[in-house]
Amino acid sequence: MRLLKVATCNLNQWAMDFDCNLKNIKDSISKAKEAGAVIRLGPELEVTGYGCEDHFLELDTVNHAWECLKDILLGDWTEGILCSIGMPIIKGSERYNCQVLCMNRKILMIRPKMWLANDGNYRELRWFTAWKEKQQFEEFQLPHEISEALSQKSAPFGYGYIQFMDTAVAAEVCEELFTPMPPHAELALNGVEVFLNASGSHHQLRKLDLRLRSFIGATHYRGGVYIYSNHQGCDGGRLYYDGCACVVINGDVVAQGSQFSLKDVEVVVAQIDLDAVASFRGSVSSFQEQASGKTKVPSITAPYSLCQPFDLQICLSSPLKIQYHSPEEEIAFGPGCWLWDYLRRSGASGFLLPLSGGADSSSVAAIVGCMCQLVVREIANGDEQVKADAIRIGQYTDGQYPTDSKEFANRIFYTIYMGTENSSEATRSRAKLVANEIGSWHLDVGIDVVISALLTLFEKLTGKRPRYKVDGGSNIENLGLQNIQARIRMVLAFMLASLLPWVHNKSGFYLVLGSSNVDEGLRGYLTKYDCSSADINPIGSISKQDLRAFLRWAAVNLGYSSLADVEAAPPTAELEPIRSNYSQLDEVDMGMTYEELSVYGRLRKIFRCGPVSMFKNLCYRWGTRLTPSEVADKVKHFFKYYSINRHKMTVLTPSYHAESYSPEDNRFDLRQFLYNAGWPYQFRKIDQLVKNLNGDKVARIESDERKLAQASAVGGGMGVVAVGSGDPKAGI
Fold first, then answer.
1. Is 140 helix (H, G, I), strand (E, B) or coil?
2. Which parts of the sequence belong to the CN hydrolase domain (predicted)?
3. Which residues are registered as beta bridge partners of 462?
């Protein structure tokens, strides 16, 4: 037997904070060595943090990364253990995203990334060059200070593997796994048994299964040990990296780390038998045949053994049942952990949320409540870093620290219901109940006096006073009156966020939380600079349907039972007067349902549909209940309001990324914000398609009628059934 103990990790790195990142790297290596591991894998670009973006273009960033690596190599961190460390490196005039494989205070090889992530949230080609030379290694001259300190002038640079005395190890970096022809395929044929995948993969609802299937598939047919490491946490942007470091052998997951955690360092260890890999490959005839005619991959030789012989004191890791979270749990834990990282790293003293009693703001409140529960739980489990952060943020004294989530929420979370004459008692009551269950410091204030003052000022300036539509006003007046309320709420929220700590003799400031969902952003059903404008928004890319499911789950699993009543209430902005014959409803205002919006969003972004393609797709999807003319009207209505309101995405509050059809303008959904909202060419094409479809339908009906007449004549009118109609009314 060749027994090999490996360690991989989830690290909560912070872009450009080299002290924080270096500390976490060293801590993870120490824990790996304490566990007896001889391989330690860290995440992609762990030295700098993955989300540095244009900081990667600065020479300082690369230089600091080398300084950190020198610090690691001059100590005993790599003594007796192979460490794969991610950092940017400049070779010649090109900048590469690299894994540096080190052991015994030496750099064994530098592996540049060959296929870069350059879609969705990723722009690696903006900062890095893909390595294209696959035939041989090149000698890379180490920076002068590094070579002097390490007494090593150069290191092999390129694509290949390390041949140890008892096994072969190679790196496959993040995106490379997901390419049509991944490197691990030919590396396996060259005898590589251990694959190291350093990754920077963000959370997205329902995405983890796709990732794990890729790891399992990489070794299911080829055999091998696949080790995966990832970032975990918010490293400074909209993304939450969701960890789940794992080890897979011959298609079985034998070790899996957490997907959502407040820990800065989590090390996952597995004990494996490499003879199982050799046995598996030897039993597959097609693998043997392809290996005999393989393309040779470059390699270097390392005069070290990594494995131990048969030993009954060593227990092998067994296959595990993979742990998945439900989408509702993902909504609770992902944004909750992201909020904690943002709070502890921003210098803020807490959060302030305009709480309306509706589904969106109540979801945000529940996520903050979940965050508080996670913090208290981690402190109870002995996490000293979480404890120190909680004491500082909650401003505890005399050795006190959070032991109850509601008490902690009361210290760091303010909610405010900003009612007007258009608000109902039902939403006011729901907001209060939600706040009480979570434990927030809740305020209830009427803002009619401020609205009245503004309207009086407007009337003094113009001589006119606008009226609501239900009171005889125009659409322009009606919209203007709604916007006044929404924007006053934003101004009041930010004023309270900055001054309430002072009022209560606390230091710092509060972060204002937004609560617009992805569907409202897509449709533009929000006022520019209203109370959805905030510092950060944990639900900005989560759909209304998912949020309602989350509320039902949170009512039971987080202990906030009042959320069930919130979920059951029809969505309303409550910006227009309530009358006996009229009550404002979101879906009526929008002219479309939230369910329809989710469909439009997926077709527009995920399936890359313009108006004409969307019309064709929806004719198939909705054709059994809607005519082509009705489908056309819906598509035109959506694209009209999407394009009219696209400009709002340029000022959208930075939001947690959770959904693949997010309309977020800053990083993810790169489209213009000035449109011809009439879409004349596209809508004309749709009209022509509708006309053709209607003509075809008339022709089919006439054909069916002729067939029916002929059949009646042949059958003598004796109960003959029409053929080929598809119309349920066509039978006799």
1. strand
2. 4-274
3. none
HEC sequence for 560-609: CCCHHHHHHCCCCCCCCCCECCECCCHHHHHCCCHHHHHHHHHHHHHCCC
CA distance 16 to 25: 14
Per-residue b/e over 666-681, b at no fewer than 16 CB within 10 Å?
A: ebbbeeeeebeeebee
- Report pLDDT for 713: 66
Q: Are 337 and 372 in contact (CB under 8 A)?
A: no
- Residue with tokens 């309602």, as numbered in its chain: 548
**Cα angle for residues 541, 534, 349 (degrees, 5° grid):** 110
Whose CA is closest to 145, among 55, 46, 68, 61? 68
Q: Which two tokens stand for residue 244?
A: 């789940």
Active-site residue list: 44, 113, 174, 356
Return the amino acid letter for 11: L
- Report which of 634, 628, 607 is spatially closest to residue 523, judged by C-alpha positions: 634
Q: What residue ranges of the chain have pLDDT lower than 50?
A: 717-732
Closest listed residue to residue 249, CA positions, set 267, 276, 282: 276
Q: Are 127 and 54 in contact (CB under 8 A)?
A: yes
Q: What is the pLDDT of residue 718?
A: 44
Q: What does the alpha-carbon distance between residue 727 and residue 730 come to, in Å, rounded to a whole number?
A: 5
Answer for the pair 546, 205: CB distance below 8 angstroms, yes or no: yes
Measure the N-to-C terminal CA separation of the chain; round to a whole number of Å: 78
- The pLDDT value given to residue 580: 66
Determine contact, residues 225/193, Cβ cutoff 8 Å.
yes
pLDDT value, residue 732? 29
239-248, pLDDT tens digit by residue?
999 999 999 9
- Amino acid 574: pLDDT: 75
Note the pTM of the prediction, 2 decimals: 0.90
pLDDT of amino acid 715: 57
